[in-house]
From TrEMBL:
Source organism (scientific name): Arenibacterium halophilum
Pfam families for the chain: Rep3_C, Rep3_N
Listed name of the protein: Replication initiation protein
Family per similarity comment: Belongs to the initiator RepB protein family.
Residue ranges annotated for the Initiator Rep protein WH1 domain, each copy included: 18-159
Length: 386
């Protein structure tokens, strides 16, 4: 997955979120780290049409690469999809009329692999909850990829959605064990073991890795710990990882122009957060002066990523194996959907450790001279012919 949208409620909406005890979806099940990442990738891919489409699709090879599998490891992908279909999501909250609502649903209602495509769906009730930013916070994949522990990612997911209230509220220990996927283990019935092996390491990784800082607090009955909660605040050192992609962006004139041009809500907010209103407006002005543009969204995407000069160079370069390869790469990238194109770039960036090479790719995209061989290998892994 682009940076994923998060809850940025203000004013009455923010107060309502606290009053209604929203963010009440809990995902049970002993999910692995890769299964948790898979769940977030699938949700981001489906987000724009979550409530308007019954089923969703994503390229299976892309999906494998994004969650850390070998691009041909379909068996592991099948196992993970099966795990998500067997995992329950449960909510218990007040609806808009103040009535208590409890519900339960499998995390995926079905998934299938056919012709290199992963097709999947959510139940209508769960899709409605997942699509509402006041109820469920999507996870930024730029942050997600930094996690190495499933317990840490699970703790982050269950704390991040309470960032606006500053606390998770008190959880009975049996609920906390279920959220961490260690329920049913006699070993973790002991709070001493739970604290040493799950809580402390997970808190340390969340505070080191993510855009929030969490502090656990416990409550006892007699000498026995019975409840736990986590105080939450933003991590100022890593806040840059979490782009403000919320409600405020929707009120500007540039956002309206993007929507009129056919850009999706999520992509419009991402571009505004990443590039700023001034740069986006300038690129919009440029695109609108071009005649014969069949896809304003694709052309604007190329403009924002700075690919115009690169495309011109590839068009005028002498026919050579390198030039032909670059042409195939640019054509393959252009054929992807906006969501897939953004995911491809983020996935590739995650594979580059050298800061100079990263900066070159961020500047030149798929025409980056410092990353030419890496780029070719990447697209070969993606299944590009030739």
């Amino acid at each position: 997955m682009d940076e994923i949208p998060r809850d940025r409620l203000t004013g009455a909406l923010r107060r309502g979120a606290v009053k209604k005890n929203v963010a009440a979806i809990h995902v049970s099940g002993k999910l692995t780290l890769l299964q948790r990442k898979l769940s977030n990738v699938l949700l981001l891919n489906a987000y724009d049409t979550l409530t308007s489409q019954v089923k969703h699709e994503i390229d299976a090879r892309t999906l494998c690469l994004m969650i850390g599998y070998n691009s041909n490891d379909m068996d592991s992908l099948k196992q993970s999809l099966r795990g998500l279909a067997e995992t329950l999501a449960e909510w218990d909250m007040l609806d808009e009329k103040g009535q208590q609502e409890w519900g339960v649903s499998s995390l995926l209602s079905y998934a299938k692999l056919k012709g290199g495509i992963c097709e999947y769906a959510y139940s209508p009730a769960l899709a409605e909850k997942l699509h509402d930013p006041k109820v469920f916070a999507l996870i930024n994949l730029n942050i997600q990829r930094r996690f190495t522990s499933g317990h840490a990612l699970a703790l982050y997911e269950n704390c991040y959605r309470f960032i606006r209230t500053g606390s998770t509220g008190w959880w009975p220990l049996d609920l906390f064990r279920r959220l961490m996927g260690v329920d049913g283990s006699a070993y973790y019935e002991s709070f001493k073991h739970l604290n040493a092996k799950v809580i402390k390491p997970a808190v340390a990784e969340v505070n080191k890795t993510s855009n929030i800082l969490v502090t656990p607090e416990t409550r006892k009955k007699g000498r026995v710990v019975t409840e736990i909660r986590f105080r939450i605040k933003e991590n100022p050192q890593l806040a840059i990882l979490d782009i403000d992609d919320g409600e405020g962006a929707r009120h500007g004139p540039v956002y309206a122009r993007l929507r009129d041009a056919g850009v999706s809500d999520r992509l419009a907010r991402q571009w505004l957060s990443t590039h700023g209103e001034g740069q986006v407006a300038a690129k919009l002005d440029y695109v609108e002066t071009r005649e014969g543009v069949r896809s304003k969204v694709g052309y604007l995407s190329a403009a924002l990523e700075g690919d115009f000069s690169a495309e011109a160079q590839s068009a005028t370069a002498p026919p050579s194996e390198r030039g032909a390869r670059l042409g195939r790469i640019l054509a393959a990238a252009k054929a992807r959907t906006p969501t897939q194109r953004d995911a491809d770039k983020r996935l590739f960036l995650g594979m580059i450790d050298d800061p100079v090479a990263r900066a070159d790719f961020e500047r030149h995209g798929w025409t980056s001279p410092l990353n030419a061989e890496r780029i070719a290998a990447f697209w070969e892994d993606m299944g590009m012919e030739g």
